[in-house]
From TrEMBL:
Protein's recorded name: Uncharacterized protein
Residues of the signal peptide: none
Biological role stated in the UniProt entry: Transcription factor.
Residue span, HTH myb-type domain: 7-63, 64-114
Location(s) in or outside the cell: Nucleus
SMART domains tied to this protein: SANT
Keyword presence, Repeat: yes
Main localization category: nucleus
GO CC terms of this entry: nucleus
GO molecular function: transcription cis-regulatory region binding
Protein species of origin: Buddleja alternifolia
GO biological process, one term: regulation of DNA-templated transcription
Keywords attached to this entry: DNA-binding, Nucleus, Repeat
SUPFAM superfamilies: Homeodomain-like
Length: 226
DNA sequence: AACGCTATCAACCGCTCTCGC
DNA sequence: AGCGAGAGCGGTTGATAGCGT
């Protein structure tokens, strides 16, 4: 007991607006990272982890709050099918959404739909389109590279790209699943694929490539089958 | 109005990973 | 190679709002 330095008791529970303000100002001044220092020097009686979490999930700029759009829901379902519970990876594909938010959303809204009983029904009732997707997922990536994508410009012309060039583009930019798919709005009025099912496995492969460092081995193929 | 139940989600906890020494 | 500190991740908890009875 004697001579032992007591650690200051850290505060827990919900953050107050004034605490948010202190943390926000501190990070804006000193930058992100070194959360131990933030915890000690900001004056907040909060642990480093707590500060990091609060900043990452609520205070950092460009955080999107509120309802998930249908596109976001679809993307979560799709990515979860590919990646499993790798929430940070999934959240990385949803601009402005955090891993915690995606995880919560999955557990409260989507997981119910995918409960074991529902899953059986889903598999048994696969539509032709879904089956085609699964089938395509097994085709080697290079088989797709010869296929073409058509994009209509605002001037009414139709541009055709090889998927190879699209994949190259996706590799060069830090591809988000829903953003680089679309060309710049000012250039194109609409986009359509000859067969978008055919295109999607490439996207899946890219996600898998990033997540697991591979995209075509048996392990990955198995993961596509629930 | 009061109570109990359920859904939601912010926050915590424990573990793993990464990096510097 | 081994160790420790800091950061990150995913699972879980708990407060509370909302709803039904």
């Amino acid at each position: 007991m004697e001579g032992k330095e007591l650690k200051p008791r850290m505060k827990k529970g919900f953050w107050k607006p004034e605490e948010d303000l202190i943390l926000k100002k501190y990070v804006e001044t000193h930058g992100e990272g070194n959360w131990t220092a933030v915890s000690k020097k900001s004056g907040l009686m909060r642990g480093a982890k707590s500060c990091r979490l609060r900043w990452k999930n609520y205070l950092r700029p460009n955080i999107k709050r509120g309802m998930m759009s249908d596109d976001e829901k679809d993307l979560i379902i799709r990515l979860h099918k590919l990646l499993g519970n790798r929430w940070s990876l999934i959240a990385g594909r949803l601009p402005g959404r955090t891993d915690n938010e995606v995880k919560n959303y999955w557990n409260t809204h989507l997981n119910k739909r995918n409960s074991p009983r529902d899953k059986t029904v889903h598999v048994n009732s696969q539509t032709e389109k879904e089956q085609q997707f699964l089938l395509n997922s097994h085709v080697k990536q290079q088989d797709h590279l010869e296929k073409q994508i058509s994009v209509s410009t605002k001037g009414g012309e139709i541009d055709t790209f090889t998927i190879d060039s699209w994949v190259q583009n996706l590799k060069n930019v830090d591809y988000g699943i829903n953003i680089p798919l679309l060309p710049p709005e000012e250039e194109y009025s609409s986009i359509f694929f000859h067969n978008d099912d055919m295109f999607m496995p490439i996207l899946d492969n890219l996600v898998l490539l990033e997540a697991f460092g591979t995209n075509g081995d048996e392990t990955m193929q198995e993961s596509l089958f629930f």
